[in-house]
Amino acid sequence: MAEENKHEHKKSNIKIKKSAIWQIISGILGALLVISVFTGGFGFNKAIKGGLSAQQAADKAITFINDNMMQPGMKATLKGVEDKEGIYYMEMNIGGKDYESCVTKDGSLLFPTVIDLNAAAKQAESKDSATVEKTDRPKAELYIFSYCPAGSATLDSFAEAGKLLKGVADVKVKFFSNMHGEYEKQQNIIQECIQDVDSDKYWDYATKYLEEIYQACGSKRSIECDKEESTKLMDKEGIDSKAVFSCVDEKGESLYQNDKNDANALSLQYSPSIVINGVYLGDADRSPAGIKALICSAFNKPPEECGETLSATGETASGGCS
After folding, report:
1. Ordered structural domains, the chain, with CATH
2. Could you tell me the pTM of the whole model?
3. What does 229-257 look like in DSSP terms, one character per residue?
4. Distances (CA, A) of 56 to 62, 86, 104
5. What distance in Å separates the CA atoms of residue 138 and residue 129, rounded to the nearest whole number?
6. What would the pLDDT profile of 223-244 be if each residue is shown by its tens digit?
7. Which of 163, 88, 148 is nearest to 271 (CA)?
8. Confidence check: pLDDT of 12 > 70
């Protein structure tokens, strides 16, 4: 679960890294598509009588993507092409993930993504009809990858709300992918274990994670940096780091797998994902005040903590990692 626009997209001042490759490519190709309307194509051959065969058009598209869009070491490979709805649909693989794109029969216009409008409308209708059931003690969960830029920024906000509401609601941070590498898996499991060993002090760690660990180690992508800075922060906040690392060794994998299973059960693919009483809230306000309001709206009778004021801005970020 490209790191920002490569994984990130909203009001964050956090640098974007390299991972959600096709999300970046899609944005670039979208712009190029507009340009192509006025330039006669992306440098492909002009339309020829009868158009190009499916294989010819797909080969030209793949060649263009590899020559102009791919980062060093990355390559798009064609898996198949089909003539459908008057256009050629291509299935390609980039970095181990499959994507669907399409190209016009004359090989002049490339569409980076395919959107089924009927399916999208049904999904939107389903999302709009989703309601969060009110309870006496709501269950609020944040699902993230620890080194996803938008995920770590949202953790900062969620932790403020979690620290305020931990006594009146079941508030938990869950981790379900280490797409960035082993250093991310290590941090995922460290945070799983801090919550297991010292759930109260976890929120102190979580509110400082973005500034003191992510900012220090995110660009280094280093297991050593992650462990060193995590230990430093735990010791600073009075968390027993030895107990945490014992947990990491003894049951960290099972805690992590449990959270991944929970994410799969909810069909979550996106970091960050906010879930209240089992309902995924895709367009949630990610500011501390916004997250507090979401949790407080799920109480049968909101407690006095819900009257506390939290920042309406904080470290917020749109977009995410998948």
Report:
1. 21-117 (no CATH), 128-307 (3.40.30.10)
2. 0.63
3. HHHHHHHHTT--HHHHHHHHHHHHHHHHH
4. 10, 16, 11
5. 20
6. 999 999 999 999 999 999 999 9
7. 148
8. no
